[in-house]
Amino acid sequence: MYLIVDVLSATWTLLTQPEGGTYQCTQSGPFGEEITVPVADQTLTLDSSQFMRI
User: Fold this and answer.
1) Which has the least CB within 10 A, 28, 34, 40, 48?
2) DSSP class of residue 51?
3) How many Å apart are CA 23 and CA 45, to the nearest integer?
4) Which pLDDT tens digit goes with each residue over 2-51?
């Protein structure tokens, strides 16, 4: 799983479920949206409104 934060365009991309050299699930959004991250049998929620654009 990877969370890519692009501070220049103020966006994020979450890549999950790796299989066969690619990621089966991709989520993207602008800063300010909540990011839900599946972790084992739980869900972690990140607040991207705290991310800073440069």
Assistant:
1) 40
2) -
3) 20
4) 999 999 999 999 999 889 999 999 999 999 999 999 888 999 999 999 99
